[in-house]
Design a protein that fits this description.
With 237 residues, this protein is an alpha+beta fold. The chain contains 11 helices and 4 strands, in the order H-E-H-E-H-E-H-H-E-H-H-H-H-H-H. Helices cover 58% and strands 11% of the residues. It has a 4-stranded mixed sheet with strand order 3-2-1-4, sandwiched between helices. The longest helix has 24 residues, at 149-172.
């Protein structure tokens, strides 16, 4: 598997150098996702969504790093083994992000081994139960109803995209990140209005527009995807 690398700006270079010096050989990977990785980073408004993966257990220093590097937002700080267990418990977003869209600043051969093993995991086959998926749908539904402006749209986009990615994986056994591709593969359940809404939502977030279009459609899409997904999962569980 090819690991996707990305250029470090001066702020990230300082952060990566600090982490490599502090954690030494126990640190096997530092990566990023979000706006910096996906090409719409705003230096004035965006933060850096990073993750740190270790070989052996270590005290969580997320708060220390967030305090020392104010623009850094540490999204995961733990071992490769702990990460694999979270994925088996139903954390789909971790699974698809690591395998399709996350980009790396630093990684060792141990990380390379870990990511290749992760790719061998059949997410559905290894899923312990679907409780996590049901809980996440309920949580996302409530957040969508409360969402406003840019923050509402910023929450809605990954929530809906992640669900649609998982449905695509269940139906086609394919890991696909690209929103337009997964919309195309799920035209059988999405109306034309819903397809246009998702594209508009994506553009709105990328351009940081302070508006969240039509929360009702967002909730309807979530409910529709979730119902289809559970109908496919439950007979096989």
């Amino acid at each position: 598997m090819v690991i996707r690398k990305i250029h470090l700006d001066s702020y990230l270079k300082e952060f990566v150098d600090f982490c490599k010096k502090r954690y030494g050989k126990n640190l096997i990977g530092i990566g990023i996702y979000g706006s910096y990785a996906w090409g719409y980073f705003d230096k004035e408004k965006s933060d850096y969504d990073v993750f740190l993966i270790f070989n052996s257990k270590i005290k969580d220093e997320t708060k220390m790093l967030d305090n020392q590097f104010k623009k850094i937002s540490v999204q995961y700080f733990g071992t490769a083994k702990q990460l694999s267990e979270l994925i088996r418990e139903g954390h789909w977003s971790l699974y698809i992000t690591l395998l399709t869209s996350a980009k790396m600043f630093y990684y060792s051969k141990e990380y390379n081994f870990f990511i290749n093993k992760l790719r061998e995991i059949d997410f559905i086959k290894n899923l312990k139960n679907i409780g996590r998926i049901k809980w996440k749908a309920k949580f996302d539904r409530e957040q969508l109803k409360k969402g406003e402006g840019y923050n509402g749209a910023k929450y809605a986009l990954p929530a809906l995209r992640s669900r649609l990615q998982l449905l695509t994986y269940i139906k086609h056994k394919k890991l696909i990140w690209d929103l337009l591709k997964i919309i195309k593969l799920n035209k059988d359940i999405l109306t034309l209005e819903e397809q246009k809404f998702l594209i508009k939502l994506n553009n709105s977030v990328r351009k940081r527009r302070n508006i969240f279009y039509n929360k009702e459609i967002a909730v309807n899409i979530l409910n529709k995807i979730n119902k289809k997904m559970l109908n496919l999962l439950i007979p096989a569980s």
